[in-house]
Inverse folding.
């Protein structure tokens, strides 16, 4: 019987103000991330206190989380691309080790294993 094989990857979660979503999606596209998930209107507590989502007033002002899974070699280009944004605006990024069973869904042909 065949079993699934797991492949090591990196999950990147980026929390930013809604007005910066296009900057981050353009960055992820430029490093050839094969996809990402965007969650709008999130709330939470951080360095600047508690932030509540107010989508009825202005979605661009609410917090957004973008998530992607990429091969390890794409993490540093994402870090470099986000540095100017984080130098100027509020935001945070988390990078975690993950394993995926369908590596072809998360790798471009040049980064396939």
């Amino acid at each position: 019987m065949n079993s699934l094989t797991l492949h090591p990857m990196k999950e990147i979660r980026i929390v930013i103000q809604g007005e910066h979503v296009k900057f981050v999606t353009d960055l992820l596209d430029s490093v050839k991330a094969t996809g990402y998930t965007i969650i709008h209107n999130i709330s939470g507590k951080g360095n600047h206190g508690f932030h509540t989502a107010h989508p009825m007033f202005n979605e661009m002002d609410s917090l957004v989380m973008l998530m992607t899974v990429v091969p390890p070699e794409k993490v540093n280009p994402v870090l470099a691309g986000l540095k100017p944004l984080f130098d100027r605006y509020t935001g945070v990024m988390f990078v975690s080790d993950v394993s995926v069973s369908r590596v072809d869904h998360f790798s471009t042909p040049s980064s396939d294993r």
Q: What stands out?
A: The mean pLDDT is 86. The helical segments are 21-30, 75-88. Residues 15 and 77 are 17 Å apart (CA to CA).
